[in-house]
# Entry
Amino acid sequence: MYHAKLGDCMLTNCTTKESLTAEYLNSRECDIPIVQRYSGVDAGMLIPFIAASILFTIRMAAKSQRLGGGWGADDFTLITAYCLAIAVFALNVSMIQHGFGKNMWDILPQTNITEAYKRFYAFVLVYKALISLAKISVCLFLLRIFQSSIFRYITYTMIVVNSAIAVTWILVDSFHCIPVHLSWTGWENEESGKCIDFITSTFINGFVNIAVDAIMVSMPLYEVLKLKLSLRKKLGVAVMFGMGLVLTAVGIARVIILSSNDSTENPTFEMEPLNYWSVIECQVAIICACLPATRAFVVHYLPGMLGYSGNASSGGFHTSSNTRSKAGPAANSSKLGFISKSMPYHIDTTATSPQNASDSLVKLVEVHSGRT
# Structure
């Protein structure tokens, strides 16, 4: 009863800053502990970040040795996305250091609230750009592998969709308050202006991204299932592409977290779980985009790790720009069995000897239009 009356009194007679000060003093008088939801560098965020960094480094190493098909637009897009992933991680750490994850009234000095919101403003914009860039990178990679006309049409459409999502929500989040500086000073309630409902906008963006994720995962899986390969080989390639479902799951978790936290009364405390899962989602997006090249790198240097025997020096992904005829590659493979399907895409299956055919390596090979 006392707290209810105190709250009504503060809302009626006090400024926001005065209300927060009164709430802080009341909490200290009642020995209510200061709660910090996450530490600055939490293991749940740090481990995915380290994993993403390792796989990104492996991808760069693989590309430098042309193990993953050589350099392409997908690589440069992902390099940009990874730089943004570093920024997302750093911004979240800085937000926590300035008070995110605490009750708003426990953040002292109160200028830290403004500083935290400035970083949150940048965090949201970088997050939206990163997620779309990572998905565009995956689409560009798929265009280097699969040559089906329908598949390529759908993939180009997804590139346009992801680009539109990024541009739309970056603009929405950039100007969700007018004047713009209310995005980080609006909590003071000292200046008039207008802001759209950030939570509703974030919900819509989350659901759109989940739908896009589902489509992008199903695209390569459908193409793989059409191949005339053994079930074991199909599963091996399908599992790699199907790892995109992990990104979908994280996106769903992020939406659930958003719906379960009321961010209107105590935003610095209630919004941090959303930031937490957003950081994880960004790192998982980088991890998923790096898996094909990482697989090529591992097969080249550690073939036994993935159950392949013999010399797999050609890697899991490589450019087939020298392929001129059906007989050419086979003629140059003295100890390799070679099976290829050039349309609508090119698949190589190699083994060290006929008796090791069960351990053969499936390689998705980049096919340039106009070549068979």
User: Anything to note?
Assistant: The radius of gyration is 25 Å. The longest helix spans residues 111-145.
